[in-house]
Write a structure and sequence with these properties.
The chain contains 1 helix and 8 strands. It has about 100 residues and is of the alpha+beta class.
């Protein structure tokens, strides 16, 4: 609880330091886990998710890049727009080799 309070105080101080009023501070919702099938997606390291319609089917898919090793995995949305369901991450490749972002 103390960490949450300190984080909120730091955000408020940072935002108000830029002349933004309390009414303009975004109201964030509680976070949630995104599942791969029935288990949470776990990249084992710090990750950067991005939602994109990878296969042009009108539903957002999930691309996840890993900060430490630079690997990128794609999770296709097999659910709906409003109730996404992601199953089986696949590594993004070019010419048979995993695409990696520069890391470090």
């Amino acid at each position: 609880m103390r960490i949450k309070m300190l984080a909120l105080a730091a955000i408020t101080l940072a935002v108000t330091g830029f002349g933004i009023t309390n009414a303009q501070i975004p109201k964030l919702k509680k976070g949630f886990m995104i599942n791969d099938g029935d288990k949470p997606i776990d990249m084992k390291i710090t990750a950067a998710p991005e939602m994109v319609d990878w296969n042009n089917d009108g539903k957002l898919d999930l691309l996840v890049g890993a900060f430490i090793d630079g690997k990128i995995e794609l999770f296709i949305n097999k659910g709906t727009k409003t109730k996404p369901k992601f199953e089986g991450g696949i590594k993004i490749q070019a010419e048979g080799k995993d695409i990696r972002l520069a890391s470090g």
